[in-house]
Design goal:
This protein is an alpha/beta fold and about 240 residues long. It is built from eleven helices and eleven strands. Strands 8-7-4-9-10-11 form a six-stranded parallel beta sheet, with helices on both faces. The longest helix has 12 residues. It is globular, with a radius of gyration of 19 Å. The termini are close together.
């Protein structure tokens, strides 16, 4: 059968499925970012039967606010990926060192993780400037994103997916809500659309994090991108154009 196969990671199983899919000359492949294409292209029968299409965002559900909570940083997602920490402890420790009015809000922790973090950090500044929330409903999460000033992208470098292949939906949600974006300097993050507007910091490097955080606070990057380019409508259009068999 002719199929459209969307590939999010590199693995032996996906290579097998991709090769099986391409036995039909009308099948098409969607790669989530450029690195996935580069790693698959020499091991499969790719010609003009693929497209690189990042994730997108439903712009209609976001209501960007002009009066953001100043110096509020938000991270949305699981605190672990593939069983590995996403280095949230480094971010918390850095915020506690910097102080200067910054507030960190985390949405997506488990009850166990909330308990462990509250027990680990008994500092008064932590209680007032770090807010660890559980998994919220979609509307509640979006409201928190809309109110924040800076969106955070963090990951562990322990797996290739985090370093090379991720195209996180939360990145596009941050952009949809007019947030400045602060990200750990992984190649996957540098392959994101509008990456020139991201403020990067070196993993576990306090000075680098502090410098980029200050730049993110004073940046106007949130106002200069073409949001239609990251919309789900635009993504669907690209898929439909690819899908013409």
């Amino acid at each position: 059968m002719n199929v459209i196969f969307e590939c999010h990671q590199y693995s032996k199983l996906r290579l097998f499925l991709l090769r099986k899919s391409l036995k039909n000359k009308k099948s098409k492949i969607i790669f989530l970012n450029e690195n996935l294409y580069e790693d698959f292209k020499h091991k499969s029968l790719l010609s003009n039967n693929f497209s690189i299409i990042h994730n997108g965002v439903d712009l209609e559900i976001f209501n960007p606010k002009s009066n953001k909570n100043t110096k509020e940083i938000i991270f949305v997602g699981n605190l672990k990926r593939f069983g590995e920490s996403r280095d949230l402890d480094f971010i918390i420790d850095s915020i506690l060192r910097i102080k200067n009015g910054y507030k960190l809000k985390v949405v997506g922790a488990t009850l166990t993780e909330i308990t462990e973090l509250n027990q680990k950090y008994s500092d008064t500044y932590f209680d007032t400037h770090v807010n660890i929330l559980g998994r919220l409903s979609r509307p509640e999460t979006i409201e928190h994103i809309n109110n924040a000033e800076i969106g955070l992208l963090i990951n562990s470098d322990a797996n290739a997916h985090s370093r090379r292949y991720t195209s996180p939906i939360k990145y596009f949600e941050y952009l949809g809500a007019n947030l400045n974006v602060l990200a750990v300097d992984f190649d996957a993050h540098r392959k994101l659309p509008f990456m020139e507007n991201i403020l990067f910091f070196k993993q576990n490097d306090f000075l680098s994090f502090t410098t980029s955080l200050n730049e993110a606070t004073n940046s106007d990057n949130r106002n200069i991108l073409d949001k239609e380019a990251i919309s789900l409508e635009n993504r669907i259009t690209k898929i439909l154009e690819l899908a013409v068999f």
